[in-house]
Write a structure and sequence with these properties.
By secondary structure, the chain is an alpha/beta fold. It is built from 9 helices and 18 strands. The termini are far apart.
Length: 363
């Protein structure tokens, strides 16, 4: 088997490949090897479409041009406002950039607003391999995920708060960031975890800048995305992320789960009793009043305490009025969340929920 070393100066490396040190490329297996999510390859840019840049190892966004070589892994993507794509099950003459942080696959669908632009297309040059000739996989570079237990790291102190929403771009990250700001002003230490999504570090950077003492996500363990992961793999990933933030002694851990409550992985997690058992409550973000109420109702039926509803709809006084008139959920605007008084709302809600649970047990 003939292997080649590549000149790393000629390669634009995606941020998800920050821990990939190998420069050995195997071109011979590109048509026969069936890739898995996380498998790293070198691609040549064919035609620029929706993605004109990739997020590089330093975190900055590098422009890419036709003919450029990029290093990135294969990955799946679910994004209702962007793209749907998958790791291919056979060789293709053309691949697509599914996410700016470095997720490559084959496009299945694209939002109408990008239909005329189309995806950025690539050709496969070869796979990055280690000294033994094995294909390098970003998910297995540090530690191989343990997939033998459904058990969840028991966290009662600090309290774990979920940031959930109706869909992508409903305001989940902004809600998490604003609450981190308010709690920091109240003298609390916050950890932020983005558990699911497609690699792009903008979200964890935002929450960090707003006040989180530590801000990490799934990509820190080499996941180009979490779409199509098993629930067992997600639970193990959650445990590892929790273990990373605990040494920072946070008072609260905000865990954001991408996309909406009906999305594959999100739905699996909120219906998983082992996962939800350690959740103190949830912030629910929505773009409109009706979904704010219906989504919160779904969480309430799952016995999850809804601390408050927030998101894009809170920028409209009329939508806020509808939620307040048609439900008992507490509306939290950006101003509310970023105030140090948010600690009082949070603790009142969580203490009341604890009281209700005790009453239910006694009855």
């Amino acid at each position: 088997m003939k292997l080649h070393k590549i000149n790393s100066n000629k390669i634009k490396k995606a941020i998800i490949c920050k821990n990939v040190n190998s420069t050995i490329i195997n071109k011979q297996i590109k048509k026969t090897y069936i890739p898995k999510a996380g498998d790293v390859a070198i691609f040549r840019v064919k035609e620029i479409g929706k993605h004109t840049r990739i997020q590089s190892v330093g975190g900055n966004n590098k422009f890419i041009l036709s003919g450029d070589l990029i290093m990135a892994p294969f990955g799946n993507r679910y994004a209702t406002g962007q793209m749907e794509g998958y790791v291919p099950k056979s060789y293709h003459s053309t691949y697509h950039i599914l996410g700016q942080g470095g997720a490559i696959g084959v496009l299945r669908s694209i939002h109408d607003k990008f239909e005329n632009i189309g995806p950025t297309t690539l050709s496969l040059v070869g796979y990055i391999v280690d000294e033994s000739g094995h294909v390098v996989n970003t998910k297995y570079l540090n530690n191989k995920p343990v997939l033998s237990s459904n058990s969840i790291t028991n966290v009662r102190d600090p309290k774990v708060i979920l940031s959930l929403g109706t869909s992508m771009d409903s305001g989940k990250t902004t809600t998490a960031a604003f609450m981190a700001r308010g709690l920091k002003l109240a003298g609390k230490k916050i950890a932020y975890i983005k558990l699911t999504g497609t690699v792009f570090t903008k979200d964890k950077s935002m929450v960090r800048d707003y006040g989180a003492k530590i801000s990490i996500d799934f990509s820190d363990f080499g996941f180009p995305s979490t779409y199509m992961c098993s629930t067992l793999e997600l639970l193990n990933l959650y445990n590892r992320l929790i273990e990373q933030v605990m040494p920072h002694n946070p008072d609260y851990i905000i865990v954001e789960i991408a996309d909406g409550l009906l999305q594959r992985e999100t739905s699996a997690l909120i219906h998983n009793k082992n996962f939800m058992r350690n959740i103190s409550g949830a912030l629910f973000s929505s773009a409109d009043s009706m979904s704010a109420i219906s989504g919160s109702d779904l969480l309430t039926k799952l016995e999850c305490t809804v601390i408050g509803v927030s998101g894009l709809f809170t920028t409209s006084p009329l939508l806020v009025q509808e939620v307040e008139q048609q439900s008992n959920y507490t509306v939290l605007t950006g101003k509310d969340l970023m105030s140090k008084e948010i600690i009082n709302t949070l603790e009142t809600k969580l203490n009341y929920s604890k009281f209700e649970n005790k009453m239910a047990v006694n009855i």
